[in-house]
Amino acid sequence: MVRHLPFLFPCRQTRKGYPVPQLESLRLLLREPQPGDAPAFVEGLAEYDVSKFLATAPHPYGLDDAKAFLVRAAETRAKGEAYGFAILRKDTQKLIGCCGLHLKEGRFVIGYWIAKPFWGQGYATEAVRKLLAFGFHDLKATEIWATWYHDNLASGQVLRKLGFQAVGVEKQFSLARGEDVLCNRTQLTREHFGRKKAA
């Protein structure tokens, strides 16, 4: 739903190979992506209405794309550069999306997507809230950044609900669309996240 943003911020807290824990919320289980998840990734990202809101997902999206992503995810996690999670519903164990934090030029950036049949049910907010807690508490991030394309209003609403503040606007390339798209830059600090949780 929302993607990648380069900014400079020192990240002394990042540890190489930090293990990806299993995170749980009321309805969701967030775990490390596995090779067997590839067909579910294709099922979700083959839908243009999902892939067009991501910076690096191609369209059409096939099994080779999913396998390549999962290999890269394992490699970057081992280097301590990214922490990805498959999002599963607890009741059915169905994979309904993916979320993660990655380092870009020293800053943590958040990204996520939810398969279209599961839009409008609060899953993105629930999953990203757990991901933010992991970033701020486990990885000791002081700031986390996110972007959302100007026509992805639902993602903008998710980020505002979680406390992200607007920082600026820029054009960002969307691989699925094959063009630059107007993109909103947002930021959340650990202090503001703590206040939102306490409210």
Spatial extent as radius of gyration:
15 Å
Poorly predicted sequence stretches spanning 5 or more consecutive residues: 1-15
CATH fold-level topology: Aminopeptidase
* Subunit arrangement of the protein: single chain
User: CATH superfamily, called what?
Assistant: Gcn5-related N-acetyltransferase (GNAT)
- The CA-CA distance between the termini, in Å, is 26 Å
Number of strands: 8
Instruction: Report the top-level CATH class.
Output: Alpha Beta
Walk me through the topology.
Elements: E1 23-24, E2 28-31, H1 38-45, H2 48-51, H3 63-78, E3 82-89, E4 95-104, E5 107-114, H4 123-138, E6 143-149, H5 153-161, E7 165-174, E8 179-189, H6 190-198
Parallel strand pairs: 5-6
Antiparallel strand pairs: 1-2, 2-3, 3-4, 4-5, 6-8, 7-8
Protein described:
This protein is of the alpha+beta class and 199 residues long. It has a single domain, classed as 3-Layer(aba) Sandwich (Aminopeptidase), CATH 3.40.630. Helix content is 31%, strand content 30%. The chain has an eight-stranded mixed sheet, with helices on both faces. Helix 1 packs across helix 3 (63-78).
Descriptive terms for the model:
6 helices, Aminopeptidase, 8-stranded mixed beta sheet, 31% helix, alpha+beta, 30% strand, disordered N terminus, 199 residues
Short description:
It contains 6 helices and 8 strands; from the N terminus they run ββαααβββαβαββα. By secondary structure, it is α+β, with helices and mostly antiparallel strands. It has one domain (23-198): Gcn5-related N-acetyltransferase (GNAT) (Aminopeptidase).
